[in-house]
Amino acid sequence: MPSSRSAGPTSRASDGAGSVAAAAHAARLAPAAPPARVAPAVAALAFKVALAPLLVAQARATRRRTPVLPEADGEREGSVGTAGAPTLRLLVAGDSSAAGVGVARQEQAVVGHLVRALHRECGRRIEWALRARTGLTTRGVHDLLLGAPVFSADVAVVITGVNDVIDQVTTRRAVRDRAALADWLLGPAGVRRVVFAPLPPMHRFPLLPEPLRTVLGGDARRHDAALARWAATRGDVSHAAFALDLDAAGMASDGFHPGEPVYRACGEALAAHVARLSLP
Predict the structure, then answer these.
(1) In sequence order, what are the residues at sequence separation of 6 or more whose Cβ sits closer than 8 angstroms to the Cβ of residue 200?
(2) Residues 6+ apart with CB under 8 A from 152
(3) Residues 255, 200: contact at Cβ < 8 Å?
(4) Which residues of 190-212 are buried (b: 16+ CB within 10 A; e: fewer)?
(5) What's the whole-model pTM score?
(6) Beta bridge partner(s), residue 92
(7) pLDDT digits (tens, 9 = 90+) for 140-189
(8) How far apart are CA 237 and CA 156, in angstroms?
(9) Which residues are 251's β-sheet partners?
(10) How many CA atoms lie within 13 A of 216 on its CB side?
(11) Is the pLDDT of residue 200 over 70?
(12) How far is CA 182 from CA 39, 77, 98, 191, in A?
């Protein structure tokens, strides 16, 4: 029988070994910890980095093969309704989709459908102006308006965002640019309410190849969600949320811009949103 002197260290060593064995056994029995959740934006960035060479090549090839369509022809200011009737003044500002690229005339474009539908919805005379140019980001739309004659409107409808996505403007910067634009419209420009159209589902654009289509589509969804969250914090700004079911038949010949069916759907949805606003 070991002496009490020799028993002390041996017992401590045995206890340590037992604790290690018990811990190892418990670790084997314990359920595995779930993997850490990766933020969607971080996952999207990692996906882009991994596919960067392919995405750049696809973007360049897409630009080369895309036909350059003109902006819609026609008047960029006008009115609908009886002179002397209660009037709503409407400003439409934006990029190529606001400018009507993809159709021949402004009557077929979003502004034409929006103005006519809004006149039907609210029964007012609509005096309207269009300020739009192909290729503009949100910041570019702001610069365009700063350099154009001021059209004092009750409501400004802003159609922008696709070029923010294409130019890889971050969602945070895009929201800042939208806030700066809205503040200028509501301040120096004298507009009473600002409505931002939603970004289109870019993952449904027929022109874009995969995986570029998926990447840009994901970016567009994140931009639109950030826009909606920001607009919800404002009482003088709104995000017109509506869905678009894009297919080749509804798009322009370039597979990137809307055709008249899409412009009609957008114009009517925007008119319904504006008509619901509390306006004097």
Answers:
(1) 97, 162, 220, 244, 246, 258
(2) 89, 189, 190, 191
(3) no
(4) ebbbbbbbbbbebbbbebbeeeb
(5) 0.83
(6) 130, 157
(7) 999 999 999 999 999 999 999 999 999 999 999 999 999 999 999 999 99
(8) 10
(9) 258
(10) 27
(11) yes
(12) 29, 21, 17, 9
Provide the 8-state DSSP code for 256: S
- What the block records as the tokens of 189 is 């420009």
Local structure of 214: helix, strand or coil:
helix
Report cis status (omega within 30 of 0) of the bond before 211: yes
DSSP state of 258: B
Contacts by 40-47, CB closer than 8 A, 24 or more apart: 40/218, 40/222, 41/171, 41/222, 44/215, 44/218, 44/219, 44/222, 47/215
Domain limits of the chain? 41-276
Average pLDDT over residues 46-74: 87
Dihedral over alpha carbons 142, 97, 102, 264 (to 10 degrees): -140
Q: Which 3 state secondary structure label does DSSP give 32?
A: coil
For tokens 């882009």, the residue is 48
Report the residue count for the chain. Answer: 280
DSSP summary character for residue 155: E
- Output b/e per residue, 255-272; b: 16+ Cβ within 10 A: ebbbbbebbbbbbbbbbe
Class of domain 41-276: alpha beta
Helix axis angle for 40-50 and 52-65, nearest 10°, is 80
Let me know the angle formed at the C-alpha of 10 by 9 and 15, rounded to the nearest 5 degrees: 95
238, 195 Cβ separation under 8 angstroms: yes
What is the per-residue pLDDT across 213-238, written as a single tens digit (0 to 9) for each? Answer: 999 999 999 999 999 999 999 999 99
Strands (DSSP E) found in 133-234: 155-159, 193-196
The dihedrals phi and psi of 202, each to the nearest 5 degrees, come to -65, -20
